[in-house]
């Protein structure tokens, strides 16, 4: 899939504040767990290369009161940030893009690039290539 990343609105057609039913109307109800996703994912929907986190619900699992508040996406999808496909870029190239669009950030000791607010986190492979992008809105 191709996703336009809008850090204030969401990921492509998927928007912050959407209900679980709205997400399912776009991506379907068939979810997919992948090893990279880890554990303790009760408040999340899992799709190929994509984790969607929910908050505000009345139970640990997404319910009718839950709203999308987190995205974690792998570059198995085309990821477009400010008109640029970042899916196959390395850390230095992504930092240049972040600088050009005015996103203050720091590089952590483990090589993760994190926005000053902490609401954007970009992880890289040992080779320095994009591995996953996480962003949230609470």
List keywords for this structure.
about 140 residues, mainly beta, 7-stranded antiparallel β-sheet, 5-stranded mixed β-sheet, 2 helices, about 15% helix
How would you describe this protein?
It is a single chain. With 138 residues, this protein is mainly beta. It has one domain (1-138). The protein has two helices and twelve strands. The protein has helices spanning 20-27, 91-100; strands spanning 2-6, 10-11, 14-15, 44-47, 50-55, 67-73, 78-81, 84-85, 105-107, 113-115, 120-124, 130-136. A seven-stranded antiparallel β-sheet has the order 4-5-6-12-11-10-9, with helices on one face. It starts with a strand and ends with a strand. The model has no long low-confidence stretch (mean pLDDT 95).
Number-wise, the strands total 12
Largest sheet: number of strands, sense, barrel closure: 7 strands, antiparallel
Radius of gyration: 15 Å
**Contiguous helical run count:** 2
SSE pattern: EEEHEEEEEHEEEE
> Major sheet: order of its strands?
4-5-6-12-11-10-9
- Percent helix, as a range, is 10-25%
The proportion of strand residues reads 35-45%
How would you sum up the global shape?
globular
Distance between the termini: 25 Å
Secondary structural class: mainly beta
Unreliable spans are: none
Structurally, the number of domains stands at 1
């Amino acid at each position: 899939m191709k996703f336009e990343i809008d850090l204030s609105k969401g990921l492509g057609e998927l928007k912050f504040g959407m209900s679980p039913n709205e997400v399912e109307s776009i991506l379907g109800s068939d979810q997919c767990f992948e090893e990279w996703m880890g554990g303790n994912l009760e408040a999340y929907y899992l799709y190929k290369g994509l984790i969607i986190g929910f908050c505000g619900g009345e139970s640990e699992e997404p319910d009718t009161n839950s709203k999308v508040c987190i995205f974690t996406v792998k570059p198995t999808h085309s990821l477009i940030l400010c008109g640029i496909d970042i899916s196959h870029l390395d850390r230095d190239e992504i930092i240049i893009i972040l600088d050009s669009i005015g996103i203050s950030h720091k590089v952590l000791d483990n090589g993760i690039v994190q926005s000053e607010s902490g609401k954007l986190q970009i992880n890289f492979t040992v080779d320095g290539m994009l591995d996953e992008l996480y962003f949230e809105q609470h």
